[in-house]
Design a protein that fits this description.
8 strands, Rossmann fold, 434 Repressor (Amino-terminal Domain), flat, alpha/beta
Length: about 450
């Protein structure tokens, strides 16, 4: 989403870093360029003005002018101010933004937003996250007007093994919410997520309905679900809902899209309420806690190693890592091991997102074809091999290649490419083992782009 902004800021900083000494006029010129870049990214005008003024005030001070590396110091200031703009500060502040659970269960969380913003899917994603943490969430379908809304939430609930309380279309959502809470109290569900109907913030009758739901259910948290693709409208919507309901936080959906990203940089500043989560894909597990510091790092091309490590820790256990390390050390890395690693990588999310978290690599892969569907083709070819072939690629001759291609719906040329890339990968793994391959990490990404 921030690709264009990141590229423009990178170009501005490159010019600053190329100068050994920065004068005040250099800073002023850079601020003009940053202002234009942010406005083009659809960031709120007032937010941009305040943001650039804060940077300018700090950048023309002693911490930059007297610095040995003034260009780097400006980048640090921009990073700090970006964090602050998105509601950050330090990592300790992140714990304050976690959803506060009620000391007397159930904790009631009310989801609000416009039609089509992704409330129902986000409700299910949020519930899955709570379940993963050992909680017992209950979903409640308060969207009783939209056709098949209850069925949609029920379907998402069944995918994650989470129960859904929903009555009939046309029922009073205030009553449904109250009944869901009573059910949770009686059956020991400790979190109730109320999926309300989408509505325009200017529709007074429907907004009054939300007032009534809030008064009856007394939610511990009210989360606004906003579509990041709507740009400035997302900011205006957030302000309107906050003025009316006093929301606790925002969930920005469709952050994996190609919009300009201004909403993420404006909402916290305009509303004074934090972005709690971001949706980074359609799959049920692609909802992430929002960390301003990490997002600022991604925008400035610094990567996000912390999030990458967290994703890896969620997907891979220590025993598997130890076994893999031993196999690499003993040069016993087989196609079966490759298939296992592909499965682990797929658990971490879209490949392009993962590569973008590696510092410096995001820009290097810009424009390259990073297609997750290649995983499917590779797995299909490996699955079409016999156990002996997977353990010893050297026995794969012409007739075996034809059989593998036929069984996987690919071509002999595809099989040849896989074998070639596999051999190259084994060579690189030897380099990593000896400590000489870290400078060639870009080549590793070529394995998945070589088809």
């Amino acid at each position: 989403m921030f690709e264009a902004l990141s590229e423009k800021l990178g170009s501005i900083f490159k010019k600053l870093k190329g100068r050994g000494l920065l004068k005040e006029e250099d800073i002023v010129e850079a601020m003009k360029e940053i202002r234009i870049a942010l406005l083009e990214a659809d960031v709120n005008f007032k937010v941009v003005k305040d943001f650039t003024e804060k940077i300018k005030t700090r950048a023309v001070g002693k911490e930059v002018i007297d610095s040995i590396t003034p260009g780097q110091q400006v980048v640090k200031i921009v990073h700090d101010e970006l964090c602050s703009l998105m509601g950050g500060g330090d990592e300790a502040s992140q714990s304050q933004r976690k959803i506060h659970l009620s000391p007397n269960p159930p904790t009631v969380i009310m989801m609000v937003g416009l039609h089509g913003s992704g409330k129902t899917t986000t409700s299910a994603k949020l519930a899955k996250g709570f379940k993963k943490d050992g909680r017992r969430p209950l979903l409640a379908a308060l969207d009783t007007q939209r056709p098949a809304a209850i069925e949609q939430l029920t379907s998402l609930g069944s995918q994650t093994g989470i129960p859904v309380y929903g009555t009939r279309a046309g029922d009073d959502p205030v009553k449904v919410g109250a009944e869901a809470i009573k059910k949770a109290q009686a059956e020991g569900w400790d979190i109730v997520i109320l999926d309300t109907a989408g509505r325009l913030h200017v529709d007074e009758d429907l907004m009054k309905e939300l007032d009534a739901v809030k008064a009856e259910t007394k939610p511990r948290e009210i989360l606004l679900v906003a579509d990041a693709m709507t740009g400035q409208d997302a900011v205006n919507i957030a302000k309107s809902f906050n003025d009316r309901l006093d929301i606790n936080g925002v969930v920005l959906t469709k952050m994996d899209g190609d919009a300009r990203g201004g909403a993420a940089l404006s909402i916290a500043s305009v509303t004074g309420k934090p972005i709690e989560f971001i949706g980074v894909g359609e799959k049920i597990d692609l909802l992430e806690p929002f960390h301003p510091e990490r997002m600022a790092g991604r925008i400035l091309g610094m990567g996000d190693i912390v999030s990458l490590v967290e994703k890896a820790q969620e997907s891979v256990n220590a025993e598997d890592v130890a076994n893999l390390h031993k196999k690499i050390k003993e040069d016993r890395f087989t196609f079966e091991d490759l298939r296992d690693q592909i499965k682990q990588i797929k658990k971490m999310g879209p490949l392009e997102n993962i590569l973008g978290m590696i510092p410096g690599l995001g820009k290097q892969i810009k424009g390259a074809s990073v297609d997750d569907r290649e995983f499917i083709r590779i797995e299909a070819m490996i699955n079409s091999m016999t156990k002996k072939e997977r353990e010893n690629y050297a026995i794969i001759n012409g007739s075996r290649k034809k059989r593998i291609a036929h069984g996987s719906g690919t071509t002999v040329s595809d099989v040849n490419k896989l074998l070639k890339q596999y051999v190259q990968m084994k060579k690189m793994l030897k380099m990593f083992k000896s400590g000489r391959g870290l400078d060639r990490i870009k080549q590793m990404t070529g394995f998945m782009r070589g088809f």
